[in-house]
Amino acid sequence: MNILDAKHIFSYRKYWAQRFGVANELPMSRAEMDDLGWDSCDVILVTGDAYIDHPSFGMALIGRVLEAQGFRVGIISQPDWQSSDDFSRLGRPNLFFGVTGGNMDSMVNRYTADKKIRSNDAYTANGEGGRRPDRAVNVYSHRCREAYKEVPIIIGGIEASLRRIAHYDYWSDKVRKSVLLDAKADLLVYGNAERQITEIAHRLAAGERVSDLKGIRGTVHFVKQVPAGWTVKDSSDIDTPGKVIKPKSPYAMEEAAVCSEKQTEAQEVLASSSKISNQQRRKTVIRLPDFETVKDDPIQYAHASRVMHGEMNPGNARPLLQKHMQRYIWVNPPPIPLSTNEMDGVFDLSYSRLPHTQYGQANIPAFEMIQHSVNIMRGCFGGCSFCSITEHEGRIIQSRSEDSIIKEIEAIRDTSPNFTGHISDLGGPTANMYRLACKDEKIEAACRLPSCVFPGICENLNTDHAPLIKLYRRARALKGIKKIFIASGLRYDLAVESPEYVKELVTHHVGGYLKIAPEHTEEGPLSKMMKPGMGTYDRFKQMFEKYSKEAGKEQYLIPYFIAAHPGTDDKDMLNLALWLKRNGFRADQVQAFLPSPMSIATAMYHSGKDTLHKISRRDASNMSIPKGIKQRRLHKAFLRYHDPKNWPLLREALKNMGRADLIGNGKHHLIPNWQPKEGGKATKLRTKGNSFRTQRTENNNRRVPAQKGTKKRARKSR
Predict the structure, then answer these.
(1) Residue (of 180, 166, 163, 450) closest to 301 by Cα position
(2) How many domains does the chain fold into?
(3) CA–CA separation, 423 vs 316, rounded Å?
(4) Which of 74, 447, 484, 631 gives 41 a disulfide partner, CB atoms 3.0 to 4.6 angstroms apart?
(5) 240-256 per-position pLDDT tens digit
(6) Nearest Cα to 122, choosing from 311, 294, 369?
């Protein structure tokens, strides 16, 4: 599929309300509407975030896109959800309410991975916590319905996007219905929503009913029955749970044309596809197991997840159908990615790039972090199983033009009131996928692999970093720009394919420290994460140190790791801790795996199976899934082996694992055998009788009396 098949989002005839012009900031009160000469809003957007008129914030971006179409758009930010009063402060919208939980999922925003309530909210003025409800999309939608019963409600954003089908919910530890039902909304928009929301607004403005809006890509709606002319294909015909069959590739589908090991093979597959079969395929809907089934059967849930992830490529995805009690939801294929021209148009709109004036001098942490950053692209083809970017933004990279990016940097330089000459980031979901894509559009459109870089980089992938290098050089040459940092996550497995890029990055765009994310050191967890092995990290580290030395700079890599990921056992975390100690790393903050809705790793967490491969009920060898609070705490403790608060837990675990040899006061020990006492001297731990150490042999572990002088050497080293 060619993106030119989609209607350009700025080609619609503008709505009559364009005569009111462009607002300095979208109104949040009736007084502001009066100043603009509005008697009503055409669209009202309700969000769980503070309103910041910046393209990094979803509601500002969607609001400005709709404004560019000629519609009058109002914002209701962080309303009081205890009643419907606050939802009527701008009056009745002429077309629809657009509802989102905000830039973050409201549950992730409010709770830690240990389900503890967070004390602050980066998307709220002065970081104040508690300004949005749990499951904000549901609550806001209900209040909108109470305020104006007949007004269509369209939900979107990350929270709705990742809950578009029946999904496992970590916080309630159960499978919940599609959020479309829970919110009692009329339509769900998933992914980046510019294309969908533009079509929806124009069709509603033309007099169509919201119930008529069927078949729009990137949307989910209700159907009473399968439309005429459509063929229903059961998901079990594509991926049958219960049979152990080694697939040629993850998510291999019976009629899929995938990125093959050789480009010629992929071309042969494409050539063999007939026009008739393609036409039939376009009128086929995949029926997933219904809600009642996946709610009670983790294997069926894992099966549904595998099938859904196989229908993520907009070039070949088919609609999905899932029954919820007496209703059916219809999930249309993902939206066609925006062209570079469309991306430029979206980011070139009249954003003030500032918080709304009602916040005064309040500090909004998320704004402080991104106010001088520039988003250069969208999407990610990495396919990391714990990440939800692909499910939301898609795996096809959508890049802005170099001129558009430079124009935004100049705007920051010339208009930001506190700009000091430093751009905090040029990036996006990743730092270095700008303009990277499959070498052949036809192969890309046919591919069903979940990742272009795992288990290795596909030879059909263009890894040329030259456009990004050119952008960096042009950007830092601008007058008034002192330094440009790269803060987005770096795919170092791609970076090592371009030594020139690594040199450019290390020489000019690192501020002493560069954060990267190997996520783990052990092959077991890495294979479940779909991340490269540590050999690639070592290659990048060598390049980083070489080019830092050549530039005469003392710079350091800061690796990030995940604790308690599916497929990780205690031994894996111990080995990771030993690696950290050998390499002199002491993590200040650690990340524990949080099962976000719809991700591949979440299906693993819920089912206990490796959903990257065919699963079987008869297979007794379930994956290691760290679920218990004690085990999750232990895995986090291994990452912070240097923290005395964790030593008692680690001592107990090491003894239980037969690795008491790692407890002691030498350099080769992981943790000491003494414990600091608050406000006093350290407490030395002793055992009755002889001192023992564990001596590891080739065949077994055995305890032998400590040699003479051991205690003395230990005290000296301490």
Answers:
(1) 166
(2) 4
(3) 39
(4) 74
(5) 775 433 333 433 333 33
(6) 369
Residue 96: inside a domain, yes or no? yes
In a domain, 191, yes or no: yes
Q: Is the Cα torsion angle 499, 500, 504, 505 positive or negative in sign?
A: negative
Radius of gyration of the chain (CA): 27
Identify the domain containing residue 678 by its residue range.
656-718
Contacts of 700 (CB under 8 A, 6+ apart): none
Q: What is the helix (H) or strand (E) element at residue 101, kind and residue range?
A: none
pLDDT digits (tens, 9 = 90+) for 3-33: 447 999 999 999 999 999 999 999 999 999 9
Q: Long-range contacts: 636-640, Cβ < 8 Å, 24+?
A: 636/563, 636/564, 636/590, 636/592, 638/563, 638/573, 638/574, 638/576, 638/577, 639/561, 639/563, 639/573, 639/576, 639/577, 639/580, 639/587, 639/590, 640/586, 640/587, 640/590
* 218 within 8 A of 185, measured Cβ to Cβ: no
Least confident residue range of 14-23, 109-118, 272-281, 683-692: 683-692
CB 98 within 8 A of CB 62: yes
Tokens of 444: 């890309």
pLDDT tens-digit map of 426-463: 999 999 999 999 999 999 999 999 999 999 999 999 99
Do 602 and 699 lie in a common domain? no
- Residue 591 pairs in a beta bridge with 562
> CA geometry: angle at 486 spanning 484 and 492, to 5°?
145
CA-based angle 589:593:599, to the nearest 5?
140
Residue at which a domain ends, from 309, 334, 359: 334
Beta strands in 639-699 (DSSP E): 674-675, 683-684, 692-696
Q: Is 44 helix (H, G, I), strand (E, B) or coil?
A: strand
337 pLDDT more than 50: yes
Residue 187 and residue 43 share a domain: yes
Give the C-alpha distances (Å, rounded to integers) separating 58 from 64, 184, 292, 319, 413.
10, 22, 33, 26, 23
Shared domain for 85 and 171, answered yes or no, is: yes
Express each pLDDT in 155-172 by its tens digit. Answer: 999 999 999 999 999 999
What phi, psi does 236 have (nearest 5°)? Answer: -70, -15
Question: Whole-prediction pTM value?
Answer: 0.88
Give burial (CB, 10 Å; 0-12/13-18/19+) of 11: exposed
